[in-house]
Amino acid sequence: MGNNTASLTERTAEVHQYVLTIDSHADTPLRFIHDNYNFCDRHQVETDGSCVDVPRMREGHLDAIFLAAFISQRERSPEGYRWARERVLTLIDRTLFQVNQCSTMASFATSPDDIFESVKTNKHAVLLGVENGFAIGRDLEMIRELSRLGVSYMTLCHTKNNDICDSSTDPEGPEHGGLSEYGRRVVKELNRTGIMIDVSHVSDQSFYDVVEESRAPVIASHSCVRALCDHPRNMNDLMIETLADAGGVIQVCLLSAYVKTLPGNPDRQKALEDLRKSYGEYGEMSETLKRQYHQDRLEIDRTFPPRRATVSDLVDHIDHIVDLVGIDYVGIGSDFDGGGGLADCRDVRQLSNITRELLKRGYSDRDIQKLWGENLLRVFRQARHVASERFYTSLEFEYDRR
Ligand SMILES: [Zn+2]
Question: How many angstroms separate the first and last alpha carbons of the chain?
Fold first, then answer.
């Protein structure tokens, strides 16, 4: 028994270092804006809640990560769109700045080849996503701008409906009945520019519409399985089959509430609500106040420890997808720094615990290789391939700019 454990630990270290590991979704750029945060410094999840930085990517052998420029949704008005545009460009600037600062250990990547180049030079690849198509407002030309800046994927919406499509979680329910007319043009333009389309957060109907409309396979950068955890953010079996049929990939997410429904803890809930009420909007706090807030937040965690799903629960989702459609359509998108984190995988250092569980369950090295990156790279290449074919249909992609 002891020997088996020792050999599993060794195998895990060996396989996890050897395979190309890619995490398709983390919200770390929010820290680049709010905090005096340096991506080259080592942080600690236990003291400041931070999950990702380059030193810990090194320690956890994570080769590449997609950092999402996350745009919260505001009013869909000219002012709202202006704010979103400004915000997304700032988040991208800050991310590029942070990556440049750690140029000895990290490099900015915009393509599958860049990722390999980065790994060859012993660096960690950082790629860009944009989370929430609200970032482009009603301006299709923003997609070109994002493409020029090196954005690799765009999540079409967040928790609310936007001009592009319905969200899975808008309290008002569907507005367009799926993808809007404008959304169809957005999909075309994303295909044309080679930006991958991310269907995490979109409503079920939006998902089906997008898959039908898109010439390239799509990704769900951070979504789980609804059959195992009944949440509208998760994908049902028919959606997973449809995604796989189109050659796409579902990247399972480490956000506990999407992994497993656990009994609530009313005392903790109340303490968190009181904390939010007494501090107000996080973005509006001074740095001193934010530090105090984090201390109080950690105190709540000590008094009422959060219940979190485990890596084993997460791998149940992977098993389910593999049983349903095979090994070629699944990957991992942590959602670190955006709520992601499991009891035994709280930050990027601990990602090898997933590899360990996969080995324990009999997944082969080849399976693990596909799951940790190859499947996503296939979709990424395909998206670029579709973009390279664009010239034959330039008229089709003409859009109304009035
Ligand atoms: Zn998200």
Answer: 70
Greatest alpha-carbon span in the chain? 70
Spatial contact of 76 and 163, defined as CB atoms under 8 Å apart: yes
Specify the pTM: 0.92
What is the CA(4)–ligand 1 centre distance, in A? 38
Using the mean position of ligand 1's atoms as its centre, give its distance from the Cα of residue 158 in Å.
7
- Encode pLDDT of 50-86 as tens digits: 999 999 999 999 999 999 999 999 999 999 999 999 9
pLDDT at 5: 77
Q: How far apart are CA 174 and CA 161, in angstroms?
A: 7
Per the prediction, the chain carries an average pLDDT of 93
181-186, Cβ contacts within 8 angstroms, sequence gap of 24 or more: 182/138, 183/133, 183/156, 183/209, 183/210, 184/209, 184/213, 185/140, 185/399, 186/133, 186/136, 186/140, 186/143, 186/156
> 147 CA to middle of ligand 1, Å?
21
Query: Are 354 and 340 contacting, i.e. CB atoms less than 8 angstroms apart?
Result: no
pLDDT tens-place string over residues 301-339: 889 988 999 999 999 999 999 999 999 999 999 999 999
The packing angle between helices 141-148 and 78-101, to 10°, is 10
Check residue 295 and give its pLDDT.
85
29 CA from centroid of ligand 1 (Å): 13
CA distance 158 to 139: 18
CA of 48 to the centre of ligand 1 (A): 21
